[in-house]
Amino acid sequence: MKFLLTSAGINNNSIQDALVDMLGKPIAESSALCIPTAMYGHPWVGPGVKAWQFISGNSENSMVELGWKSVGVLELTALPSIAEDRWVPLVRETDVLLVAGGDALYLCHWMRQSGLADLLPSLHAVYVGMSAGSMVMAPNIGEDFVGWTPPNGGDETLGLVDFAMFPHLDHEMLPGNTMAAAERWAAGMQGPAYAMDDQTAIKVIDGAVEVVSEGHWKLFSP
C-alpha cells in the first residue's frame, strides 16, 4: 500500500501533485472511501457537525472535496456487525482511502476491531491520512497525544511505517504545538520522528520515505 500522511489534508499543490502521482491517474477518474471514525473519539471534532462536514466535503481541510469520481463512507465502528463480504470487496476495489483526523488511539482500536488493519498491507489503494489518520500508521504516538484510552492502555498504534509524527506544528490555534514541544516529544520516542506543519505531508512507497512540503518540518533521529 502507498501512504500519503498529511498534517491537514491535501491543502497545497505539491501535496496534491504527489497524490495524483501515487494514484497514477487523475482524481476525477479515481474512487474514494472516506473514513470519519477517528473524529468520534476526539471531543473537538466529533460527533456532530464536523463529522458531517468531513463526510460531505464541506470541511476546511481538502480531502473529500477534491472532485473524486465517486466517494463512499466506510464507518469502522459498524464493520464488526456486518459480514466481511459486504465491505471487503468494496475496500479492495477503491483507489484511495481518505482517513480523517481525531483521536489516533480510537482510530487504531477500530481499525483492529473492524479487520481493516489486517487488510491494509494487501491493498493497492493509496492511503491518505490527516493528523490522527496519519499518526495511526506509526509504531506509537507518544504520551502527549494520548486522549481516548484503549482497553489495554499504552500509546501503541499500527506500525505500518517506522516513524512517528507530530502534526500541526506552529499552528496558530494550537499554541502548545511549538518546535520546542516537538523536540521534547521526540526525545521520548523510540525511532525516527517528524514534526510537520499543515503544509507538509510524508509520502511512503515500498518503505521509501519522501517529505512533500511547502511549509516547514523537522526530522528527529534517535
Quick structural gist:
The chain has 222 residues and is α/β, with parallel strands linked by helices.
Notes on the structure:
It comes from Paenibacillus cineris. The chain has 222 residues and is an alpha/beta fold. It is built from eight helices and ten strands. It has helices at residues 13-23, 37-40, 49-56, 84-93, 104-114, 116-119, 132-135, 179-187, and strands at 2-6, 31-35, 70-73, 96-99, 126-130, 164-166, 193-196, 200-205, 208-213, 217-220. It starts with a strand and ends with a strand.
Blueprint of the fold:
Layout: E1 2-6, H1 13-23, E2 31-35, H2 37-40, H3 49-56, E3 70-73, H4 84-93, E4 96-99, H5 104-114, H6 116-119, E5 126-130, H7 132-135, E6 164-166, H8 179-187, E7 193-196, E8 200-205, E9 208-213, E10 217-220
Parallel strand pairs: 1-5, 2-3, 2-4, 4-5, 6-7
Antiparallel strand pairs: 1-8, 7-10, 8-9
